[in-house]
Design brief:
Helix content: 55-70%
Organism: Streptomyces yanii
Protein name: AAA family ATPase
Pfam families: AAA_16 (PF13191), GerE (PF00196)
Radius of gyration: 37 Å
Strand order of the largest sheet: 4-5-6-3-7
Largest sheet: 5 strands, parallel
CATH topology of the domain at 2-184: Rossmann fold
Distance between the termini: 66 Å
Domain HTH luxR-type: 851-916
Keywords: ATP-binding, Nucleotide-binding
Length: 921
């Protein structure tokens, strides 16, 4: 928004008022009142520019605190440019000015006499051009001048003179009783604040940007001046927030806004302000409400009287007028004053572990094992609630206060471990070096940090794998005889590296190393070991173990919840845990385990793909790609691109799919990241199947696993079962297709996961030569309790079933499964599959628009809810499965009943059966 010669942001209303003020006929006065730094002077410049553009003569004056006791000092400023007009006044008025300007002696005139003389002078001066008089910092104008300006301001009507006075709202002024019209100048809105900040400080780190916006609270001066100071103190930011510092480091100019008033307070009142500031007492209308545990400031009326505090109208508590007051109170205090305040606050929060530990830590200087242990407990309590970044700071401070070298090193190692999970990879390495010494890069704690960095920043699975193997063997050689936290971290990291490498030799070496260790390896780690590697050979019972483990998800550290989610993915039970992941992910992105949040987004996206929510999956993938790119986690960037490529292939976006496939493969294959290269092969398989290029699909599929077996430690091998079988059948390789289907059955895939059960039954049905076996297997696949949770696979099985029925039982029998297939593919957004199913329907004699009237009457979501309800699930159970509230489920059923011509839940099964029967007509 352009003002004349200047850019102004978020002042539309004020600019409109000032424009009307300048252009309106006749004289008038206006007071601009607002806090320091809120932009009053900028508006004053704006109105002066407007007036100059309208050919007004502009006369400026400014109140000066040093001259506030000098009578008529301010009036002299105003009138000095008009002295040449005084000689044209009559003798009476001229003598008045001679007296007040000291040119002659005499009795000072009354306010009325002087005011009338000033009006006469102004009228004379404005006879040629309109006059605008602007007064900045009017609160410092001497009392005599203030009275005259108020008198004059009330009597400008009918003249060509306008008066604008700027006042600070936190200081009393003689203009307070002048009865002049006022325009309040408030802080900027959130959107205007963001615009102003981005205009003057583009490209700020998002966390710094948020800190500045919160601290400035809409104050333009703070928005403009804070960013350089925040950037300069970024490394210590978290520790300062938690240990003895509140708010952003303030430049001197902002400290001066409130500093002088704070220093003038009584010592006891300053101490109250300091305690309130260090405990995070709110500011302004966002103040603490009933039930708040913040410190309650007492006997601070003096601070309220001078504009530093307000009183919350709901609680009656003192609150800071602005966040800058709070920051200034802390920065102007001495270190000893801050430590004393923290000691008091620790006693106040005796029953609050995290607050007490924080304040105690800031109140001591020398090592103190009791305080260190309390900080460690606070960190442990914060992590499951999304407080990983706070936990890093607490553990770092706990290490500083540790009385033994061993405890210091252990706590720094824990801080480094959490820092790695929270995306602070550089800090993780610094913390480990601080705990082990510069020459101890092969220590187990150092290996955890350096291997994390090597894996996530650059996908270096080979060197990180070697490091971790050596570290675990070293720990075992040193005589570890009971479960150890550091050993668990190394084991879990090794398993994660192995998963990404997907290397048979490394996995077998890991089993040889870990299997004999018994209880030294945690229960969770055993789940990861069996699920992440070769689920075909080691996955029996994993989904029950995951379910038992997830029962305690609310008390679980985010990395364990994430790892268990990955295990659930490998056995295709993600849907039941997705609500927990969705609740967690936003929290972790802000202040928690950022790296785990990235994996959670991957898991949410995978489940959205599986259940057919492809638009939502695209949005989740794009969000994850932005997050991983911003934080430069190269492994996760390419991992996300792989899933986006797979989704594009499913949707028939072949060019985009292959572009992403090439991008990921080029990065992952030289590094040996087999997990991702398997996905790129799957992208090729899926894209080729979507296009109907079955030969290419077959060649891609056997690149993952040969027919008749499931390549060990290739996680995509069982997932491509249906792809390989279908591609083989369409290319005349019926023997290979049958061999592969039987291998799936013999390997026990139906017992490992619901998806593998459906695809195994489908593959057996497609390849069966015995019609009875085929019918039985199709029935097994299509009526499986979890079939509707995997609509893409189910639709492909319906399509194959329909084609077989058309050949064996005639066109009429084929229409039902073909209609289900076409409807599902259309809903998913798979156009080539939709057209394929419709073509089969046309061959079966069905109309071009194949969907039945009954099915068209029910949306996909309504149909799915109806099917689940007919199966006996409660609204709550349906909601958990479909990620809806029970009330939403009830609303859908309320709409379904009249569409089906029924009035009760008990009639659902028969009504849905009639739908199926009608489709055979």
């Amino acid at each position: 928004m352009e003002s004349i010669g200047r850019t102004m942001v978020g002042r539309e209303r004020e600019r409109e008022v000032l424009s009307d003020f300048v252009t309106a006929s006749g004289g008038r006065a206006l007071v601009l009142r607002g806090d320091t730094g809120v932009g009053k002077s900028a508006l004053l410049e704006h109105v002066a520019d407007l007036a100059a553009a309208e050919k007004h003569r502009v006369i400026r004056a400014a109140g000066v605190e040093a001259e506030s006791e000098l009578p008529f000092a301010g009036l002299h400023q105003f009138l000095y440019p008009l002295l040449s007009h005084i000689d044209r006044l009559d003798d009476v008025h001229r003598r008045v000015f001679d007296v007040i300007f000291g040119r002659t002696e005499g009795t000072p005139p009354s306010v009325m006499t002087l005011g009338i003389a000033v009006l006469d002078l102004l009228s004379l001066a404005a006879s040629q051009n309109p006059l605008l008089m602007v007064l900045d910092d009017g609160q410092w104008l001497d009392a005599s001048s203030t009275q005259v300006c108020g008198f004059v301001g009330r009597r400008l009507t009918g003249s060509s003179v306008k008066l604008v006075v700027v006042l600070r709202s936190d200081l009393p002024s003689g203009f307070d009783t002048a009865a002049l019209p006022e325009l309040p100048v408030t802080t900027l809105s959130e959107s205007a604040s963001e615009q102003l900040l981005d205009m003057h400080h583009p490209g700020l780190d998002q966390r710094i940007r948020r800190l500045v916006l919160d601290e400035a609270h809409g104050n333009p001066l703070a928005l403009l001046e804070l960013p350089p100071y925040v950037r300069g103190n970024r490394a210590a930011r978290t520790a300062e927030e938690l240990f003895g510092y509140t708010g952003i480091p303030l430049p001197l100019r902002l400290q001066q806004v409130y500093g002088a008033r704070i220093e003038a307070l009584d010592d006891a009142v300053r101490a109250e302000l300091l305690r309130g500031a260090l405990d995070g007492v709110g500011a302004g209308t966002a103040a603490d409400r009933p039930g708040s545990t913040h410190y309650r400031m007492k006997d601070a009326d003096e601070a309220a009287d001078c504009g530093l505090l307000d009183i919350d109208p709901l609680t009656g508590n003192f609150v800071f007028r602005h966040p800058l007051v709070r920051s200034t109170a802390v920065q102007t205090a001495t270190p000893n004053e801050r430590r004393a305040a923290h000691a008091v606050l620790a006693r106040v929060h005796h029953d609050d572990l995290e607050r007490r530990a924080t304040h105690l830590a800031a109140s001591v200087v020398d090592p103190d094992e009791e305080v260190a242990a309390m900080l460690e407990a606070a960190a442990n309590s914060a992590v499951p609630r999304g407080g990983a970044m706070a936990a890093v700071a607490w553990l770092t401070r706990a290490a500083e206060l540790s009385e033994s070298r061993e405890e210091r090193s252990r706590r720094l190692g824990s801080a480094a471990y959490i820092a790695g999970h929270s995306g602070q990879l550089d800090q993780a390495q610094r913390l480990v070096r601080a705990g082990t010494g510069a020459g101890s890069n092969d220590s187990p704690a150092s290996v955890v940090a350096s291997a994390y960095v090597a894996l996530f920043e650059d996908g270096d699975v080979r060197s990180s794998q070697r490091q971790v193997f050596a570290a675990i063997e070293s720990m075992l050689d040193s005589g570890v005889r009971e479960p150890a936290e550091l050993l668990t971290r190394l084991v879990d990291l090794l398993l994660a590296i192995n998963q990404y490498a997907s290397d048979k030799t490394a996995w077998e070496r890991s089993h040889e190393l870990l299997d004999p260790l018994g209880d030294l390896v945690s229960t969770y780690s055993r789940i990861y070991q069996d699920a992440w590697g070769d689920v075909v050979r080691r996955g029996a019972g994993v989904h029950e173990r995951v379910e038992r483990a997830f029962a305690g998800v609310h008390e679980m550290e985010p990395w364990d919840a994430t790892r268990l989610g990955v295990a659930a993915y490998h056995v295709d039970t993600l849907s039941q845990y997705r609500p927990a992941l969705q609740r967690t992910v936003d929290r972790e992105v802000e202040t928690g385990a950022l790296a785990d949040a990235m994996t959670m987004l991957h898991l949410i996206m995978l489940d959205q793909i599986a259940v057919g929510e492809w638009d939502e999956a695209e949005r989740t993938g794009q969000r994850c790609l932005e997050l991983t790119t911003t934080h430069r986690h190269a492994l996760f960037v390419h991992h996300t691109r792989a899933y986006l490529g797979l989704l594009a292939a499913l949707r028939g976006e072949a060019d985009r799919a292959r572009e992403l496939q090439a991008m990921v493969d080029t990065w992952a294959r030289p590094r040996g990241v087999g997990f991702l290269t398997q996905i790129t092969d799957t992208i090729g398989t899926t894209a080729a199947l979507t296009e109907g290029d079955y030969e290419a699909a077959y060649l891609h599929a056997i690149g993952i696993t040969p027919p008749g077996t499931f390549e060990p430690y290739a996680h995509q091998a069982p997932r491509t079962l249906l792809d390989l079988v279908e591609a083989a059948l369409h290319t005349g390789r019926t023997e290979q297709a049958r061999t592969h289907a039987l291998a799936a059955r013999d390997a026990g895939l139906p017992d490992l996961s619901p998806r593998l059960a459906i695809t195994t039954y489908g593959a057996l049905a497609m390849t069966a030569t015995d019609p009875t076996e085929a019918d039985h297997m199709y029935h097994q696949a299509e009526t499986h309790p979890a079939a509707t949770r995997f609509p893409y696979e189910l639709a492909r099985i319906h399509l194959a079933h329909g084609i077989r029925l058309r050949h064996t039982h005639g066109p009429k029998a084929a229409r039902h499964p073909l209609t289900l297939a076409a409807d599902t593919f259309q809903r998913l957004g798979a156009p080539t599959w939709t057209e394929r199913a419709r073509a089969e329907l046309r061959t079966a004699g069905a109309p071009t628009l194949a969907s039945s009237a009954h099915l068209a009457a029910l949306t996909w979501q309504e149909r799915r809810i109806a099917d689940l309800a007919a199966g006996g699930l409660t609204n709550k159970e349906i909601g958990e499965r479909m990620h809806l509230s029970p009330r939403t489920v009830s609303s859908h059923l309320y709409r379904v009943f009249p569409k089906l011509g029924i009035t009760s839940r008990a009639a659902l099964r028969d009504a849905l059966a009639r739908l199926s029967s009608d489709q055979n007509v």
